[in-house]
Amino acid sequence: MAVTMNDVAKAAGVSLKTVSNVLNNYEFIRPATKQRVQDAIAELGYEANLTARSLRSGKTSMLGLVLSDLSAPYYAELASKLMNAAARHGYRVLVEQSDADPGAELNALQGPFRQLTDGLLFTPLSIGADAIAGRAGSKPLVMLGEHIVDPRFDLVTMKNGEAAQALTAHLLAGGRRRIAVIGAHPEESAGTAGLRLHGYRQALDQAGAPFDPALIAPGEWRRDAGAAAVAGLLDSGVEFDAVFGLNDVLALGALHELLIRGVSVPRDVAVAGFDDIDEARFASPSLTTVSPGMDEIAERSVALLLDRLSGRETAEAGVHVESGFELRIRESAP
């Protein structure tokens, strides 16, 4: 015979309501009482019927997370931090990879994935604000990133322009005057690449350094693209004394290409990235980069989503939050 909540309540010496509160992560429960209930659950082998519970309460205690590419180190690390932040509030995270496909991004807003979750953390790359607004429904949604900045939506992002400006200023202060930028997206002005390129140009202007379009190398944000961009610059004869990869994997690809070409880093060419992924610390030489406040992004985005769920955040317009950043000065660009 299946173990019931009544069995757990009797074993723990508490009411049925108390067992329900523990199962639903009700925060105002004495630790000793919560422990007794959890011990009884473990001893009896009780398994909650989550489907029935969600039908009764209208809540699943699950948050949805849609990212474009979980193989990208930044997204993988961010997903881990989001899961940990959600767990501290008694929530689990259901992850969907969209591959930046418009159909997949739209499907994440409706259908089974949305039904299984109480709220959504979303990084759209291929669909627009109106498409999202038309399908978002009544459940709360928090945007991550810069693809869509719209007053209708809550948003948690980073200071891309300011951070890129600070990093470029650091390279300039180190005597670098021919700073190549790899991973630019020429057609983009408001997205991540556009904002970081804008910050780079602002730093040049403030230092009175000329802007040279020949130093801007477009490309996808992958290691091989970073290596290819630097190879192209070297083969073309364009002179440069620093490389700013618009994310860390680009910079790591650039670092690899420079080293196999016999270019000394940082003596001949300094290299810097953006994101401060774990790999940056262990590169050889270790990578100078921007730490964009990933822990803060995770904590604040989960908190904002839960505030919407609980009704603690009632602003009709979207709440926009920017995390802080720090420069991580390491061997590749001291």
From TrEMBL:
UniProt-listed InterPro entries: HTH_LacI (IPR000843), LacI/GalR-like_sensor (IPR046335), Lambda_DNA-bd_dom_sf (IPR010982), Peripla_BP_I (IPR028082)
Domain HTH lacI-type intervals: 3-57
Lineage top rank: taxon: Bacteria
Keyword Transport annotated: no
GO MF entries: DNA-binding transcription factor activity; transcription cis-regulatory region binding
Pfam families found in the cross-reference section: LacI, Peripla_BP_3
Keyword vocabulary terms for this entry: DNA-binding, Transcription, Transcription regulation
PANTHER family: LACI-RELATED TRANSCRIPTIONAL REPRESSOR (PTHR30146), LACTOSE OPERON REPRESSOR (PTHR30146:SF153)
Identification of the protein by name: LacI family transcriptional regulator
Source organism per UniProt: Pseudarthrobacter enclensis
